[in-house]
Fold:
Amino acid sequence: MNAPAIEKPASAEALAKALHEAASHRLAVIPVGGGKARGMGDIPKSCDVELHTTRLDRVIEHSQADMVVSVEAGITLEALQAELGKAGQFLPLDPFNSPGHTIGGLLATGWTGPLRLRFGSPRDFLIGVRVALPDGKLATGGGRVVKNVSGYDMMKLHYGALGSLGVIVAASFKVFPKPLHDVTVTSEGGWDDADRALAMPVAPSALEIFSDGRILARYTGSRDAVDRVVGDLDWTIEEPSIWERHSRRAPARWARIAAPRSVLRRLVEALPRGAGWWASPGTGVAHWAIASDAPSVLDMRARTASAGGTLVMLDAPYDFMREVGAWGTPPKTIEIMRRLKAAFDPDGVLNPGRFVV
Amino acid sequence: MALPKQVADELRRVVGRESVIDSANDLRIFERDGSIEGAMPDAVVLASTTEDVAGVMKVAANHRIPVVPRGAGTGLSGGAVTIRGGIALQVTRMRRILEIDPVAQTALVEPGVVNQELSLAAAQHGLFYAPDPSSQKACTIGGNAAENSGGPHCLYYGVTTNHVLGMEVVLADGSVHWVNGDTPDRIGLDLCGILVGSEGTLCAITKIKVKLLRVPPSIATLLAAFPSIETASQAVSAVIGHGIVPAALEMMDSVTVGAVEAHYHAGYPTDAGAVLLVEVDGIAESTRELTAAISKILGENRGYGLREAQTPAERELLWAGRKGAIGALGRIKPNYYLHDGVVPRSRLPQVLSAVGEIGEHYKLPVANVFHAGDGNLHPNILFDLRDREVLHQVESAGEEMLRAVVELGGALSGEHGIGLEKAAYMPWIYSDDDLDAMHRVKDVFDAGGTLNPGKIFPDPSRKAVHLAGRTGRAIEAKWW
Structure:
């Protein structure tokens, strides 16, 4: 494979033009943001052009009173949080392999972190999106209001689609006030302690359990409520900076297991003996640092699938990725997905072979 | 226009003789939804099973006849109106709650299950279904999913799409599919996400899996009066600006308060320019602390007559007034035309003053009752449909109000859908390229165009936009 051409357009219009130019020559285009999820997906069949969004890095508008922000896709999460922080606000997104994710990359990959327990994923707080399409058009969906049913929910079409239908160039979010009170506690008590915390009347905003039995729980909200639940739990207070360290995790070989939360424990306990993992039992998501062979991954994927879940590879060396495949068995609705792909990218120039469609 | 006999016979073979209605008198019941414009279906089919729905879709596709899925018919944008005739596909017989899983906190329901019935059933397990449209005593979960409905408590909990985990759907070709499911991250495209809120134009919904939430142990409901809409709006911004997102934050203007108080005797202060209804929930420590903080902020922003519901019955009464407000407006005029624009919250004073001016200009009474925390306004233009002359005025006033919403950076609909009545205005907020992208989605799911035709997308041949010289152009989207 020849080295791909690197394009770094400075505007959404220029990016759309570059995409159209490549598509009209049927060149394979790989969109790149912060490059933090390059290992995600199957190995592309070809890559003629890398289309970087990194120069699209502006905050377009942050309305503090409306708690809405619009940004270009190439801004990093950290730069956006710094801007929002000045107003006492934040985007409740804390993905792994941080820092350095771009907003566009996070939307395309659908990566989330521990705060998903309380705030959901960007699927829940993305309110507008602008996308460059292979035919050179720029299509906008949604808007800048927190509640909107004007036309189809185009945000859902592109969130988690790994850039297979278009390249996200801008996005608007509902943002949140920084919590009045924010306390993190830790225990060594394993799943039983995790279940106990999740069953209490005040739910944690994040709760992570690790393969060594350690638990981190984060409580946000009113001071009295947080103090009461933290008192009831009687765990050890932990430094809040632990979350920033946690978000840096990015093993060289890793997979994301997502399953109905009632079966997550059973799945994680079926991982190979001594495996390293961390999980959000409240959301049903676990991350596995793979130290075993490819058949062990295929075995776990089969177990996960039969429990109604998915196992997706987030990164691995090429040979390993080829052997296990990034995604596993496609869903039964794959034909509908292929038709959507064909409607937006008829020549299949975007990320060919990398995503499910 | 009656269906050809052959088609009617085919439909009867699918659902049974008694489940196809095609006599003109009986069809009249299905002519309308909760909006203004109606149109007669050629037939109504009462589906009882997914197989019924799939069979009807196949017949319709073969004969290229429009199909409009329909729940309780409480929609407020003409989504269930058979504007091009064809079949109204009634799903209200599919009303079983198939499963409530208290451990997973999910429910699997048929589309005709009434919203409030689901929450009542879930309450036995200490759970509830969060989206609560004001019509929740009648509206169906299927209709809620089709319209991506909201409600007062969506300020904190989110709208329907945030609570739907997966659906069984029937496409225009009669094929049946499950989209998404219980797993938090699926493989491939988010089909469920694109289908929720598609207003019956992409699929019919035959089963819905939803999230249930734990009933909060403590709920506090506050009522405060304000001298004007502007001061109440300011208070709304102040509450949220303090980092407090209540479960609900609702506003009613003086016209609404007068009608509601006359009807419900809920103790709303009738001398007020506007009233705010604020609710917080959580554990007792949390609601106490938040109630104190909110009371202080409301007081600092000229709120007076502050009252906290002391009993569950009192809370119910305060909410009965809010949720029954539109019915109570019948005391003023028999008909209403309700818009649903949504603006950035800080623009509420501006948009409400524009709404007031437009009402005065057209000499039409306007009552505002709405989700202030979300910036989602609901101006009710009140009129008497027996005066046919007034209808054009009402529509023009509604249109001008929507235009004001859009010019302030807002959107056409926050929770009622585009449907029939707002389709012509879609070019105000979306460019041709934006609409083209949505059309591509439509074509993927319904290439033949038989599913709920005439909705969402502008159809210039049908309805002229009243405002001269203002049509067909998107307002420049400055935020990009």
